[in-house]
């Protein structure tokens, strides 16, 4: 089944210790930004916690007095200064993309989000055509705040709609009213945003086919140029998982999720959208999320904020999770990095196959070893790979292949 690419999971992996000053191996600095360079900025604050959410986020009650939202921008700017020292004489040639995620970034004042973007520009320089995205909840933006963000240089906004059905929103513990996401999308276009995305979640217990159809209709009518649609993933430790364990809600059905995905493909294709990644559709090539493409094609990015992940020159690291600990480390002049790993060639190859195969551009067959090419031949015979692209030397998933993407990946790897 098409799955969610989780950017900010609640549980961080193990790894080797990050140096106190955050220094990177010389080998990692040699070609910084050669394949593109982006900045991810994590804002960990939420007004309330959604029942399905396992991301590194905190409500005011969960933080107590331990972290000050008002000083958060200054804390992130301190990490940005540390990042500039780490890269030193080998800065990226430019910042191609910026993505501000969360949490709910737009709980910060729009002026703070503008100041953070200015800090990135002053530190490394934004490319003239840089894509600058912020995530937002529909109820956390106004026409005025959107205009401020657009004037500050934000070019793209991604709104968490999830569903148009009141019952589905209630099960997910979403607080915006049905219809507000589409309104916010129109307000963003009126404010001058170049690109607007709406996020959907499908397969929620109790969601009817007509509920999802109404969500798709509302997305198309909102006039957005990008749609992300993900199957509901039930993460351990969430309120939704607890409700399912108690038998209050049934677990998601793979068959239902497959039906919803096919419905999304049919409705979006008819409305002029094309898939470019298993869970993402855009009206044009220009509307594709360049920041996510940077992830999916193995480029470099620096992650700012608690729990944020970074990748530079084959070294991946992640920051401490809690905003208080994050701020304390930076106040002491130390890296907030918790741990890191240096990807082996085998690990880098595995990730490259896994991510590129999800793209509509597919994977060059030359990237596979003999066993992988044999697996690709089997996938072709099973109707999982495009018979037109295959003779041209590329493994591209068919619609049925998208439904079974994880299984195809397993067949292409040792």
TrEMBL record:
It is found in: Cytoplasm. This is Heme chaperone HemW. CDD domains: Radical_SAM. GO terms for biological process: porphyrin-containing compound biosynthetic process. Residues 31-274 form the Radical SAM core domain. Belongs to the anaerobic coproporphyrinogen-III oxidase family. HemW subfamily. It comes from Micromonospora matsumotoense. Probably acts as a heme chaperone, transferring heme to an unknown acceptor. Binds one molecule of heme per monomer, possibly covalently. Binds 1 [4Fe-4S] cluster. The cluster is coordinated with 3 cysteines and an exchangeable S-adenosyl-L-methionine. GO terms for molecular function: 4 iron, 4 sulfur cluster binding; coproporphyrinogen oxidase activity; metal ion binding. GO terms for cellular component: cytoplasm. The keyword DNA-binding does not apply. Keywords: 4Fe-4S, Chaperone, Cytoplasm, Heme, Iron, Iron-sulfur, Metal-binding, S-adenosyl-L-methionine. InterPro entries: Aldolase_TIM (IPR013785), Coproporphyrinogen-III_oxidase (IPR034505), Elp3/MiaA/NifB-like_rSAM (IPR006638), HemW-like (IPR004559), rSAM (IPR007197), rSAM_sf (IPR058240).
